[in-house]
Each structure stands twice: as structure tokens, then as C-alpha cells.
């Protein structure tokens, strides 16, 4: 009886069909569907771990809703374009208006591409590398006697300060001006990427380094 059931089961089983698995390449992630992250190079070896542009940091939109403030150094993994958008949300009336700042970044990247013909993400990375001060001065002393002492700047602080200087320069340039914030941000990034002293961020960085040199 058991043998009959086994025979019936063998007859009922369909022949095994070899299924070929096709390996499908994932589409390349491009910022706003236009700008590739693959060819972006971080030329400063000390900032490679702190300017996030590759692999997980490659996003279609600079709006990941990540909670980067929860743990120390977590914001180093935040995509650099998103950090730019976040830095633009400054001063009370602009707090939380991330869609507005993403739109500004998109518009300014279009302008950068038209003016330079290069990948705007690469221009942003170069601007951050050039705008971060390498040396600063801090207050040393207590009980009345205070002096300034020159100190090296940590890589993460270099990136943080560069983002703040670039956004502050763009904001101040666009205030009471016919130019839009997107145009001013594009000009600021292009000048900073060149290392031009027309850039607010480069001027401030040079000033900080000059003061630090005198306090060595």
C-alpha cells in the first residue's frame, strides 16, 4: 500500500525546470536624476572619511530624514549635499523649511553646471576642502589672565566650519540684493572651489589662519 502511494507521488511530481537567474545591474544613483557620484574625488586625504559622497551616501534627493545628531560623529556619514541643504535652514524664519533649501540647492547646481560645465557635486566637494580652516586659535588660561593659543582643527570641524562659512557667505550676499539665494550660492561655491578671495568662506578661512599664525 505504501509502495503504491510512493509510485503515485512520483508520477504526480512535475519535472524540475532549471531556472536561470538573471543578474540585473542596479541603476546608477544620480543626484536629482542628473549628477553622478561615481566620478567625484575627495582630493584631501584627511577629509575622505568626513565628506560622504560614495556608496551609501549617494542619494537621488538630499532628504534622508536621518537622525544624525543622536550619536557623536554620526553626521560624518550624512551626504554632503544634504548637509549643505541643512545648513541653509538658518535663522528662525527658515527653520524646518527643508523642501525650500533642497529646491535652492537644485537650482544652484543647475547654475554651476551651466557656468563651469563640471559636475556640481565635485565643485561642492572642492569648495568644502578649500574653505575649512586648518589652524585656529583657542582661549587658554583662567582667573583673569587669558591668552590665545594656536591649535590644529579636527577634520570633522573643518567640514562643519566650511559648510557654515559657505552658507553664511551666500546668505549675506543675497540679502537686499536682486540676485536670488541660488545664484549667490552658486557664485560662492564656484569661487571657493577655485580658491578665489572673492569667496566669503575663503576670506574668513584666511583670516582665521592668519590670526592663529600670530598666536603660535
Automatic annotation (TrEMBL):
The residues forming a coiled coil are: none
Sorted alphabetically, which SUPFAM superfamilies does this protein's record hold? Ribosomal protein S7
Q: Per the record, GO CC terms?
A: small ribosomal subunit
Ordered alphabetically, the record's keywords are: Ribonucleoprotein, Ribosomal protein
Q: GO annotations under biological process?
A: translation
Query: Where would I find the Small ribosomal subunit protein uS7 domain in this sequence?
Result: 56-216
| GO MF annotation, one | RNA binding
Q: Does the keyword Metal-binding apply?
A: no
**Record's family?**
Belongs to the universal ribosomal protein uS7 family.
User: What's the protein name?
Assistant: Small ribosomal subunit protein uS7 domain-containing protein
User: What organism is listed for this UniProt entry?
Assistant: Diploscapter pachys
Amino acid at each position: 500500500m505504501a509502495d503504491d502511494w510512493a509510485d503515485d507521488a512520483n508520477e504526480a511530481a512535475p519535472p524540475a525546470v532549471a531556472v536561470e537567474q538573471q543578474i540585473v545591474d542596479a541603476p546608477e544613483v544620480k543626484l536629482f536624476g542628473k549628477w553622478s557620484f561615481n566620478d567625484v574625488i575627495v582630493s584631501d586625504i584627511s577629509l575622505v572619511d568626513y565628506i560622504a559622497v560614495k556608496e551609501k551616501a549617494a542619494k537621488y534627493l538630499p532628504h534622508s530624514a536621518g537622525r544624525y545628531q543622536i550619536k557623536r560623529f554620526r553626521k560624518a556619514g550624512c551626504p554632503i549635499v544634504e548637509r549643505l541643504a541643512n545648513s541653509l535652514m538658518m535663522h528662525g524664519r527658515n527653520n524646518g523649511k527643508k523642501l525650500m533649501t533642497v529646491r535652492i540647492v537644485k537650482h544652484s547646481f543647475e547654475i554651476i553646471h551651466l557656468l563651469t560645465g563640471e559636475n556640481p557635486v565635485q565643485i561642492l566637494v572642492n569648495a568644502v576642502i578649500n574653505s575649512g580652516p586648518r589652524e585656529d586659535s583657542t582661549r587658554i588660561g583662567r582667573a583673569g589672565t587669558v591668552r590665545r593659543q594656536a591649535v590644529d582643527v579636527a577634520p570633522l570641524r573643518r567640514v562643519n566650519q566650511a559648510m557654515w562659512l559657505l552658507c553664511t557667505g551666500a546668505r549675506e550676499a543675497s540679502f537686499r540684493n536682486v540676485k536670488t539665494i541660488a545664484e549667490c550660492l552658486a557664485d560662492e561655491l564656484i569661487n571657493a572651489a577655485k580658491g578665489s578671495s572673492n569667496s566669503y568662506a575663503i576670506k574668513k578661512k584666511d583670516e582665521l589662519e592668519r590670526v592663529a599664525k600670530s598666536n603660535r
